[in-house]
Amino acid sequence: MKTKYIIGILICIFLISGCAKEQDNTQMANPASVYCEQNNGTLTIEETEQGQKGYCNFKDSTRCDEWEYYRGECSPGYPNIKPEVCKQQCPDGSVINCNETCSETFCGTSKNSTCKSDNECVASGCSNQICQSTNEVPTATTCEYKPCYEAKTYDLTCKCLDNKCQWA
Fold it and tell me: What is the residue extent of each domain of the chain?
């Protein structure tokens, strides 16, 4: 009888242990760490009094807190300086964030419409960035402003050159 009792208990233990849920040891990756490595940074984790802190190290020897880099508050070359705080002035007079590049050329468009004189050419578009003929329907644009649209900054005017309306 004792043997049947022990066998019964063992069967119950096996059944119960077979029904036990297996523990899932997988973890989600830290998105800031993944972002650092996807953007050619090298991640280092340092122990601090508050616990572990991750840093994204860049090829130019600067580094950012991984979460500040992930949120765009820090960038290579300008560690721990929020881009919107760090400004620089471009030759055309525009002011941009330090992590941006100045536009060094005029970025308007010439439609190269047929013309006979300068009077037949006009700047159009919401920011006057398009040079076209007065004989055409004015070109509609998205009304975004860019400093590189300022033709006067680049000493350009919309005129008839070689029988085509173009910036010159």
Answer: 31-85, 109-167
Q: Any idea which residue has 């300068």 for tokens?
A: 118
Residue 56 in contact with residue 43, Cβ under 8 Å?
yes
The residues, ordered by sequence, that sit 6+ positions from 143 with a Cβ below 8 Å of its Cβ are 126, 127
87-135 pLDDT, tens digit each? 666 766 667 666 666 766 788 999 999 999 999 999 999 999 999 999 9
Alpha helices (runs of H) in the chain, residue ranges in sequence order: 2-19, 31-38, 66-70
Query: Is 41 within 8 Å of 69 (Cβ atoms)?
Result: yes
CA distance 72 to 131: 37
pLDDT value for 85: 55
H or E element that contains 110: strand 109-110
Buried b (16+ CB within 10 A) or exposed e, 93-118: ebebeeeeeebeebebbbbebebeee
Mean predicted confidence (pLDDT) in 12-33: 67
